[in-house]
Specification:
mainly alpha, 4-stranded mixed β-sheet, about 300 residues
């Protein structure tokens, strides 16, 4: 069976490609500024590279540990394993490890740098609230992330922001440690900090945009895997509604995992603008999934376009 990229859509692919190009362009310009100002770009790159490697190779362990998740066997969670195995067989994917996190926050996430190293985790709060078909939709969404290597993609994309952040810290530290200085040094220092701040902000916004696009792609991938977009639409609706009833302290404790989760754990009363959000609005995701379901029901599914990404 030919392997698929779960989430393929021309408009979506163009947006993700443009975002990655923008990150690369900002990166090249930034390194040029650092070199022109005499900063040790090589040292910064080496340190940032170390951070990126740690994120890439250990992000799954860090994420699972942060959620207090434990890997479960087929004997411990037979229905969960059966659902994942069925989806993997349908989509020609390697079966990932499966974990459960004991928390009332209804959510799920995928971690691991490649399909061979992947783990799909669901919370007890999600399993308690969703029906089997809805859980299957959520699992398909996470498997789509695995198939598209989204953890590796987002780690690489975050590399530039890491570089910029390190430069800001090093510059401030060097300035504080320097007992002598002249006007020239002060100008260079301010130029480096200003360039780093601009790059950090630009890369932050581009990475958040890329993250939102990949959530749309994973939603679409889940629709393709299950053949029923309404399964995930129903699940997202329930998760969103249940999240509003979770105590603030539990949501705050889980917010650090937002970039992994299928639905961000945002405390009550908070609303992030579309510009800085890690995920698209739940209502827009549900709307697009229901549009796909309507196309399938009418027999006009075609390529299941997802061109309107507002």
């Amino acid at each position: 069976m030919a392997k698929h990229w779960y989430g393929r859509d021309r408009g979506l692919a163009w947006r993700m490609g443009f975002t990655m190009f923008g990150l690369g362009l900002v990166y090249v310009l930034f390194m040029g500024v650092l070199i022109a100002l005499g900063t040790s770009a090589i040292l910064v790159l080496l340190l940032a590279g170390d951070v990126a490697i740690v994120q890439l190779f250990f992000s799954d362990r860090i994420a699972l540990s942060a959620m207090g998740a434990r890997e479960v066997s087929a004997e411990q969670a037979p229905e969960l394993h059966a659902a994942v195995e069925r989806l993997c067989q349908l989509s020609d994917l390697r079966k990932p490890r499966i974990a459960i996190a004991r928390t009332d926050v209804p959510n799920a996430f995928a971690a691991g740098r490649s399909p061979k190293k992947a783990t799909v985790c669901v919370t007890t709060g999600l399993l308690d609230r969703l029906e089997k078909r809805e859980v299957e939709g959520v699992l398909a969404h996470e498997l789509s992330h695995v198939a598209n290597r989204d953890v590796a993609v987002m780690t690489i994309a975050s590399f530039l922001a890491t570089v910029a952040g390190l430069v800001i810290r090093f510059s401030l530290y060097s300035r504080m440690m320097s007992s002598r200085g002249n006007n020239n040094t002060a100008v260079v220092f301010l130029a480096i900090v200003a360039a780093s701040v601009v790059v950090y902000v630009l890369s932050f916004l581009l990475i958040r945009a890329l993250s939102r696009y990949r959530e749309y792609a994973a939603d679409r991938g889940a629709a393709i895997m299950t053949g029923s977009p309404s399964q995930l639409a129903s699940a997202l609706g329930k998760i969103s509604g249940a999240m509003a009833r979770i105590p603030n302290r539990d949501l705050r404790a889980a917010e650090g995992m937002d970039h992994f989760f299928i639905m961000p754990a945002v405390s009550k009363g908070m609303s992030l603008s579309n510009l800085v959000a890690t995920h698209p609005p739940a209502e827009k995701r549900v709307e697009r999934l229901l549009e796909m379901q309507a196309q399938i029901d009418s027999g006009a599914a075609g390529d299941l376009p997802l061109d309107r990404l507002g």
